[in-house]
Amino acid sequence: MGKNLYKKVWEAHEVRKLPNGQSQIFIGLHLIHEVTSPQAFGMIRDLKLNVAYPNLTFATVDHIIPTDDIARPLKDHLADEMLSALQKNTQESHITYLGADSGQQGIVHVIGPELGLTQPGLTIACGDSHTSTHGAFGTLAFGIGTTQVRDVLATQTLALSPLKVRKIEVNGKLGKGVTAKDIILHIIRKLGVKGGVGFAYEYTGDTITNLTMEERMTLCNMSIEGGARCGYINPDQTTYDYLKGRKYVATQNWSDLVKKWDGFKSDADATYDDLAPFLAQEINPTVTWGINPGQAVFIDETIPDPKNYQGLERDSIQEALDFMKFKPNQPVKGIPVQVAFLGSCTNGRLSDFIEVAKLIKGHKVAKGVRALAVPGSQAVDHEARKLGIDAVFQEAGFEWRKPGCSMCLAMNPDKLVGDEICASSSNRNFKGRQGSPTGRTILMSPIMVVAAAITGRVSDAREVFVL
Fold first, then answer.
1. Calpha distance 305→295 (Å, rounded)
2. Alpha-carbon distance 30 to 309, whole Å?
């Protein structure tokens, strides 16, 4: 009987089975940043332990770094202390640190792939929920907590329970203006934000195969928002073409390397614990209206009426309506926005900015809308500037910022004010996520964000840009 990729990678990294039913799994790549690592380094220091495999850990700064003025010391003294701690810890432990003066700094889930650190068949861990992004390359990539960051630093292993695997198959041709972001928001809407608990998601089907690597990263990035511990896509020629020539990818014996990566693919007769089929042509541009990513509708639909639901679902809808200050059966199209944010580990890559730049030429951000464009990495920023994309955005009225997580989670100066509504290309719309306890987030694709920025309202990009 064949095996799926999850099973193959798990078995390749299983050190031993533990008495409690878990397995000790070797972690092939550990990514750290300034927020969840200082305590972990402190813990291994207290235990008088050293970092076991410093060559397999890479550090960068992304969560707290400002996207305007990064002169040291930072204006936020606590943030500056966190940066200093990361620099000190990585230096003492001989870990590669990709800081703001490296030319390679950026959101950890953006720089991993662009440097070629993320490779098929790896197990990857990082103290951040959206580590699932790296599954786009055929890896098992887990977001972990601070104590687990400690464990990986000290042993390069994690104690993990095996997951079930759900095969999510998407077939067909996407319509105009429908993107990878819409696919994943639709999947989460249908399967629920807890639908993936206990599962790894394997995304497959011809729609998925036809996505670029950056689109695949957007898809896998939000697996965690659907409750899945990780999500992945089998590697293929698109994967190998993306990786070839990247800094940390071997240049010799390329065919042998590809053969090795191919070996991790799910077998044709692999079995799964569940199957969830979708048709691409049934997916339309999707936006959230509530306080979790599953509370979403197509752009031409209305917000649900709690009267039509029962129990916890009814209560959840009412709670969302109360917080968002929306009414039942209100059309989502036309809701005014005050902020537009284009960036994050979900949609802050070069292709996101290239696609949007094609559309916004000749348009202007609506009066009263604050619009931020934040590259996911210094490499994205550099390439965008070479292509003149930064100028296109600035001419349209966007602020072009320095790389970082920015307004995705607002652990930096980029925050909503009061109950502002933000059209956001990020991944979470929880209460207070973007810095203000009463700030409201509407998740959508990058082209929908700029459509909202230009009209000042949640809008259908297909109509705004005549797609």
1. 12
2. 43
The secondary structure of 50-112 as a DSSP string is: --S-GGGEEEE--SS--SS--PSSPSSHHHHHHHHHHHHHHHHHT-EEE-TTSS--B-HHHHH
| Tokens 């996520």, located at residue | 433
pLDDT tens, residue by residue, 358-411:
999 999 999 999 999 999 999 999 999 999 999 999 999 999 999 999 999 999
Rounded to 5 degrees, φ, ψ at 159 are -90, 115
Neighbours of 12 (CB within 10 A): 16
Peptide bond into 73 cis (omega under 30): yes
Beta-strand relationship, 230-233 and 274-279:
unpaired
- Residue 447 CA to residue 99 CA, distance in Å, equals 30
What ranges in 94-212 are assigned the alpha helix state H? 108-114, 146-155, 180-191, 206-209
Q: What is the residue-wise DSSP string for 329-345?
A: T-BSTT-B-SEEEE-HH
What's residue 1's pLDDT?
A: 82
Torsional sign, CA 176, 181, 185, 191: positive
Using DSSP's 3-state secondary structure scheme, residue 431 falls into coil
For the chain, which ranges sit under pLDDT 50? none
Residues 33-80 pLDDT 10s: 999 899 999 999 999 999 999 999 999 999 999 999 999 999 999 999
Query: Residue 45 belongs to what H/E stretch?
Result: helix 38-46
* E strands present in 226-281: 230-233, 274-279
Cβ-contact 350, 318 below 8 angstroms = no
Reading the block at residue 79, the tokens are 């943030």
How far apart CA 164 and CA 156 sit, in angstroms, is 24
- Token pair in block for residue 1: 């009987």
pTM above 0.90, yes or no: yes
The maximal CA–CA distance of the chain, rounded, in angstroms, is 64
Q: In whole angstroms, what is the distance from residue 142 CA to residue 131 CA?
A: 6
* Displacement of CA 162 from its chain's centroid (Å): 23
Q: Which has the closest alpha carbon to 434: 351, 334, 343?
A: 343
Measured distance CA(91)–CA(285) in Å, rounded: 46
- d(CA 369, CA 342) in angstroms, rounded, equals 13
Distances (CA, A) of 7 to 3, 119, 197, 255, 270: 6, 17, 18, 24, 10
